[in-house]
């Protein structure tokens, strides 16, 4: 009889543990936000936005090669170190179907969020991909209570500078000989997220599905 009671208690305890684990897993699932969202770009092209993880590094390298004439300004080692070793880094990767088309990398630096990388595959430029990434980043920055978003852009990249200005970035200063290789100057731009200057000058964001 004692042995039967002992077995019953053991089985009952296992059932309780399984039930607790099930309830906890459901609770955690509801609390953790999805790593994937769907949007429509300006041409109504559906795209998937994902949080960048280690498994996305090959896709990020592909986007770099397509965007920088075969070069990868940030190689695999640099990306792995930033993604896996730096708790203040964040990446977004944009897909059209299963094809990677754009990515954005940032670092949280106090009250500022600094953009380290932003690249779009050429055939998907000018349809709102970069704008979408920046708008999603601004939403994240607002949630975190960030005061600004900053970046550097090549002096010669007039298209990018125009986009950033439309989003609300202000020119701060020129950093001479900033870029390795050719030594081109960079323009530092800052998007203040408080006051009227943080407002987007044009409604250019993509549609969330």
Task: Explain this structure.
- The chain has 209 residues and is an alpha+beta fold.
- It contains five helices and nine strands.
- The chain has helices at 2-31, 57-67, 76-85, 129-144, 158-167; strands at 36-40, 46-51, 89-96, 99-109, 112-120, 148-154, 170-175, 186-192, 207-208.
- It has a nine-stranded mixed sheet with strand order 7-8-6-5-4-3-2-1-9, with helices on both faces.
- The chain is globular, with a radius of gyration of 22 Å.
- The termini are far apart.
- Mean pLDDT is 83; it is low at 11-33 and 196-205.
Mean pLDDT: 83
Instruction: Give the count of helical stretches.
Output: 5
Radius of gyration: 22 Å
How many angstroms separate the termini? 62 Å
Largest sheet: 9 strands, mixed
Question: Globular, elongated, flat, extended or rod-shaped: what is the shape?
Answer: globular
**Spatial strand order of the main sheet:** 7-8-6-5-4-3-2-1-9
Give the percentage of residues in beta strands.
25-35%
The helix content, as a percent range, equals: 25-40%
* Secondary-structure-derived class: alpha+beta
Let me know the number of strands. 9
Low-confidence stretches: 11-33, 196-205
Oligomeric category:
single chain
Helix-strand sequence: HEEHHEEEHEHEEE
GO molecular function, one term: N-acetyltransferase activity
Family: Belongs to the acetyltransferase family. RimI subfamily.
Keywords: Acyltransferase, Cytoplasm, Transferase
Protein name: Ribosomal-protein-alanine N-acetyltransferase
